[in-house]
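Retry 2 of 3 after timeout on previous attempt. Resubmitting structure tokens to design endpoint.
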């Protein structure tokens, strides 16, 4: 019986050791499960943050692409505006040159007109002087004719104004 009691004692001791080991393993597993669940939650949280960051990154990349496109459009518009400005400046220079030419031509024409007026005035004065000379010659001839005419006659009086 001693052997049975020793065997029973050993069996109970072994059962207790195994129960202790099972409880210890169960507590270890629970601890590991808790840590695993915490790590799982942290990973899920980090995954959500990564996804949100990726979405933000994609949105920023799209915005950068649209800004690049807008920048290219702006460059094109700037180039067109600069070309239009250059064309306008060329047209302005051409117009200014034409204006200067027209002003020079107008000045030349005005000078020519002034010369023609001066020449005309000189000719008019010369013509009036000649008219006066001719009138004087006519008066002198009339006086000479009147000197030879007989003023007693009616026709002589009319011609000489006596």
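Retry 2 succeeded. Sequence:
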């Amino acid at each position: 019986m001693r052997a049975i009691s020793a065997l029973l004692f050993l069996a109970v001791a072994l059962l207790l050791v195994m129960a202790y080991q099972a409880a210890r393993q169960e507590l270890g597993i629970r601890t590991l499960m808790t840590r695993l669940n915490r790590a799982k939650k942290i990973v899920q949280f980090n995954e959500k943050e990564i996804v949100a960051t990726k979405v933000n990154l994609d949105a920023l990349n799209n915005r950068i692409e649209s800004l690049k496109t807008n920048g290219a459009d702006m460059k094109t518009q700037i180039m067109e505006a600069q070309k239009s400005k250059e064309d306008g400046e060329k047209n302005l220079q051409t117009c200014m040159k034409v204006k200067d030419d027209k002003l020079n031509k107008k000045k030349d024409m005005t000078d020519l007109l002034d010369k023609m007026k001066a020449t005309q005035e000189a000719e008019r004065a010369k013509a009036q002087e000649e008219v006066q000379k001719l009138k004087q010659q006519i008066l002198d001839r009339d006086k000479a004719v009147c000197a030879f005419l007989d003023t007693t006659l009616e026709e002589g009086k009319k011609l000489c104004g006596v």
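Attempt log closed. The CA atoms of residues 148 and 156 lie 10 Å apart.
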